[in-house]
Amino acid sequence: MERTRHEFDVIRLWEQPASLFLQYPGLLPFATLGQTTNPTETLRQATQIVDRIEDQTTQANLMAASAILAGLRLEQNVIYSLVRRDIMQESVIYRSIQEEAEARAEARQRREIANNSLREGFPVEAVARITGLSIEEVQQLQQQLNNSAQS
Predict the structure, then answer these.
(1) Is residue 69 within 8 Å of residue 35, measured between CB atoms?
(2) What is residue 58's three-state secondary structure?
(3) Judgement on whether residues 70 and 111 belong to the same structural domain of the protein
(4) Quick one: 86 and 104 in the same domain?
(5) Looking at the DSSP assignment, which residues form a beta bridge with residue 35?
(6) Residue 1 predicted with pLDDT over 80
(7) Who contacts 78 (Cβ-Cβ below 8 Å, separation ≥6)?
């Protein structure tokens, strides 16, 4: 097929009835964003439908996606009271987000250790070995410390 033509219609999720999204498993995460007078009840309905899905992977991914998108409209405590976190935590996306957060926290901790070590006068090379940061990264931190000390 050398030439194909595709046409798309743009829809506004918030103008579509939430009941439309509740009809199809793949659209369940969008239900809370749809037109509804009670987004909390809509999320409750979506999670009840997800709970009936037999495939664990599909169930976990839909639960996580539903929770993430519901966050655009509902408070965290409301979402967590309705969404089964044990299922959601099995989602590939949830695990990926969690791993990224852990990696960022570990990087912050390494930089904090490096900053403290540099303040105590440890040599750059030693700080790099201790923290696992590159010498260039430690030198940048040292430069930032020197600049802030001069200010």
Answers:
(1) no
(2) helix
(3) no
(4) no
(5) 17
(6) no
(7) 40, 43
Two tokens, residue 145: 């410390």
Do 141 and 75 lie in one domain? The reply is no
Which amino acid would we find at residue 52? R
17 touches 26 (CB < 8 A): no
pTM value surpassing 0.70:
no
**Distance of alpha carbon 73 from alpha carbon 41, whole angstroms:** 12
Other C-beta atoms within 10 Å of 55: how many?
10
Average pLDDT, the chain: 92
Phi and psi dihedrals of 2, rounded to 5? Answer: -75, -35
Q: How far apart are CA 29 and CA 6, in angstroms?
A: 25
- Residue range 26-74, pLDDT digits in tens: 999 999 999 999 999 999 999 999 999 999 999 999 999 999 999 999 9
Task: Name the least confident of 62-66, 93-97, 99-103.
Answer: 93-97
